[in-house]
Amino acid sequence: MAEFSKLVITDTGRALLAKMIAGSGNIRFTKVSTSSTAYEEAQLQGLAFLAGEKQTSLISKVTRTNETAIEVEAAFTNTDLTEGYHMRALGLYAVDPDEGEILYAVATELSGCCYMPAYNGVTLSGILLTLVTTVGNAESVSLEVTPAGIATLKDVQTVQADIQTVKAQLGEHTVGSDVPENAIFSNMVGATETAAGQAGYVPAPAAGAQEKYLRGDGTWQPAMETLADIRANTQGGYAAGALALKEALGTVLEQTLVAGDTTLTFTNDAITDDSMIDVYTDPFCNGLTSAAQDGNTLTLTFDARENDVQVKVKVG
């Protein structure tokens, strides 16, 4: 298994670092090269170039790992190799604003076991390198990479993980068909008296809320299940409001229609041949079958009821 030493920053790399610290520019890493030349560690700092360079790879990714360290990724394959070689040194290159491209740092292979074979037309060999180097200020390092850089296996795995995350969020939906192109994937915000709501994820209903409906304020509310519920919420409220208004404008007579009875008689001087008469029941009862007025007497006939019903007569 290949084993590389730590990256040693060269003298030209140190000069670039000094310029960066002085505010003369940023560091932009450009490429990684391999060499078959064996160097002693003491030689690395003084190198201006790698002797015996065999391959060069554009950088695939540059990442800040902390305030002073940078992680650089590059990949090598034997696709264009006609002759194999031992990979004994690695060189990391960067751009100096005054000198152009320079050898920034070098590492040596320590095991002697890193061999890149020639391509035989059948078996493709490759190596992914992750180089970590220290810089004076990681914020002053450009993260831009050349688009032609090879996507590494790590890059592909990262993209695959992102895709799986998106799939988990979208399920089997397809953007542009059953999911609108401008769909918003955030929590729904309910409307208020003064502010419009916002589209988003519908809040999940709790167990036992299968009969509820989602209201405009973003909450699940019980639905009216029967005609009686609807009647109680509409007719009851309407009748109560209408009756209150009419009571203020006329004479109101009230009696109880006892369960089982069918007839009520109202007698009052306000009842005349010219009277406008309204009949109200509480709870709401549509069982009135006839009404007869004779002088000051009004007789109401109802269907027989199982419960008592309060009957009000407004004479105006």
Task: Trace the largest sheet across and list its strands.
Answer: 1-8-7-2-3
The number of distinct helices, counting runs of at least 4 residues, comes to 3
Shape designation: rod-shaped
Oligomer: single chain
Helix fraction bin = 10-25%
Rg over C-alpha atoms, rounded to the nearest angstrom: 44 Å
Distance between the termini: 106 Å
Which percent range describes the beta-strand content? 25-35%
Structural class: alpha+beta
Largest sheet: 5 strands, antiparallel
SSE string: EHEEEEEEEEEHEEHEEEEEE
DSSP E strands, number:
18
Mean pLDDT: 80
Uncertain stretches of 5 or more adjacent residues: none
Describe this structure in words.
The protein is of the alpha+beta class and 316 residues long. It contains 3 helices and 18 strands. The chain has a 5-stranded antiparallel beta sheet. A hairpin with a 2-residue loop joins strand 16 and strand 17. The termini are far apart. The relative contact order is 0.11. The model has no long low-confidence stretch (mean pLDDT 80).
Question: Can you give keywords for this protein?
Answer:
single chain, 316 residues, alpha+beta, three-stranded antiparallel β-sheet, 18 strands, 33% strand, rod-shaped
Write the layout of secondary structure elements.
Blueprint lengths: L7 E2 L1 H11 L6 E8 L17 E6 L2 E4 L4 E9 L7 E2 L2 E8 L3 E9 L6 E2 L9 E9 L18 H18 L41 E3 L5 E3 L4 H21 L3 E7 L5 E5 L9 E6 L5 E7 L2 E6 L6 E7 L1
Antiparallel strand pairs: 1-8, 2-3, 2-7, 4-5, 5-10, 6-9, 7-8, 11-12, 13-18, 14-17, 15-18, 16-17
